[in-house]
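Project standup — Tuesday

K.O.: blocked on the structure for the chain from last sprint. Re-posting the sequence here as requested.
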Amino acid sequence: MKKTIFILLIFIVLILKAKEFAEFNEIYRGMKGYALTVFEETDIDTIQLEVIDIVRNYNGSQDVILVKCLGENIEKTGIAQGMSGSPVYFNNKLAGALSYTWANMKEPIAGVTAINDMLKIDKFEVHGKNGIYKLQGIMNPIILNGVSDKVIESVKDYMPSSINGFTISGSGSSEYYDKRKSNIKPGSAVAVKIVEGDMNASAIGTCTYKDGDKLYLFGHPFYMKGEIQFPVSEAYIYTILAKTDLSYKIGIPFIDNEATAVQDRMAGVLALKNIKTPMIPVKFILNEKKNVNLNFVRDEDLISSLLPLMFIQSLFDNYKSAGSMTVQYHITLFSKKSGNVNYENMVSSDFAPIFAYIDIQSILYAYTKNIFKAPLIDSIYIKAEIQEDILIYSIQDIIIPKKYYSPGETINGSVLLSKLRGNEESIKFTLNIPDNIQGDSIILIAISGRDEPIFELSRSEGMYDFTNFDELKNIITKLKPANSIVVKLIDNKTGFVDVNKEYTKLTGTKITQMLLMGKKQVYAGLLNEEVLSTLGVITGQSTAIIKIRR
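H.V.: unblocked you, prediction finished:
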């Protein structure tokens, strides 16, 4: 008897669910309906709709309803970024979500993703191909609160295509969050958060459907990343900025996280309530007195693009946005599982923040997107020293007290530097000549740490090859900063590289055999080197020939 009652209850629930949703076979041309979305603040407004037709098998697996949106608000703004996910109803039954449109439309026409396709997100049943009608998803603008238009504009040419084009500067005040408790319902504006803290970044969209602890959002993919872990909250909308190509909502997230986005699929994003989102703490320390604290989602693409952007914003906020600047920074990527990685460098110019952005982005991308393993980063720490001046030194000469040296002897020399807009200076070095040196002469060279990788690749083709994750970490850690001088002793011995080790003392026949087997060539052997630290960025190089006395 109890089993019969239980089955009957399930049957009743399924009937009620069926009545809750509109099937596509119920939809016809000219049919009237409505959508829910937020135009301002948190108030959910109604958009009147009229069905144009149904596009069958769009994306190779799902049907899309084409609708014309009616009403004063929507005719003024057009379909806006941030409206994706707005629930669409016919006969008061949920049919799906506003999710697609075209840019530069004369009329507000949109595509609607079926709610039945969205409900399959957590079952991975919607896998599409490119549609033939060139509908584009109603993009979710990434609102960067605390990051200025000037910063975004200065680095837009170097930002990855995945975020460039719909990254928007948000609030410039200190109020980057709505302090109220999040209460997401169908039609609510939602923020899928990427960064929280002293600055924040979030994608603004709309909630389509709420089923217990499940929230269905957007009606199209965010980044199509599959399984994700991004915090989700309600969003406060300031307004919709009407544009001739595609308008967009601007707003701020609620500080209260209501759910965690766990699936990013073709038909939308699924978020689950009562799940805590793991984040990566990030700290910038500027001149040992100003701290910037952030929390990033665990996503390598977004970390490598947005972290350096927020770093240079902190430079703009606390120092200046243009003119002479020198920035020396030390980055530590903490990881109990993968081991810590340290990297340091210096940039100095009228465009120092831009150079810092490119450099930090490159290092983070190389580390997080390596082909060997996904590093589990526990936290990121950047300590920076900033001076509002240009500190650049060029290498003028390398000075040694004599021309002839014996094997095993020590060279006590100096590198002569010329400071930009300043006087000449010198810095001392000490290098030992190996006891077993062969040949009649060796080369002494002083080169900038910034230029050393280029020189080393010309000396030894395999110098920066790596075959596993640990070798990559070792290369990153051993990169010399631009404010260093590398003084090297090299000879004219050729050889080959095998597993990052150079062999230059074998017979010519053996070396030739190994090169024919595909080993990388060494054109000059490295005998010894010393790294000298300076107060500014080093440019240029100088060489000297040392004669060996037998």
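K.O.: great, moving the ticket to review. The first helix runs from residue 2 to 20. The mean pLDDT is 87.
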